[in-house]
Amino acid sequence: MCPLSKSIPLLERRAIEAEMLLRVYDASCAAVGSAVALGILEQAVDSAALAAGRLFARSAPVGGPSLAHFATVLERWQEGGVIDITDIKHAEDTLSFTVKRCGYVQRYADLGVPASLHTVFSCRRDAAFAEGYSANLRMERPETIAQGHTCCRFTFRWEP
Known about the structure:
This protein is α+β, with helices and mostly antiparallel strands. It contains six helices and four strands, in the order ααααββααββ. It is globular and about 50 Å long.
């Protein structure tokens, strides 16, 4: 992640990325077909999210990454009211919450990103971010707004 990443609101950063990712996807589809293009796109998104997770882990206080520190990322994710998070439950080894509204899905739609790519551009990042943060962190999210559900239910588990 570049030094400018915190100076740009997260929604705007994702919109800029989406515009470029869509252009790369369209060009790749023409060159290698949609299945290969989608695989390339997924690798790029995973790589960026892994790197972001590693960078966030480096900001952990003395003692290193922990679920308590990871939970602080919710503040960044909610910046500017881009998502509405409810039902936050934080226990020693579990963090769970529900996303009731996702501004990313609306922004991608406004940009003309096909609905089939919304999960790749946004939702896919979550598991890779958690993996980059720590090998001890596991994520479960059985449904997403981008898939047409009414909410996204997250559970992160810390497994030492």
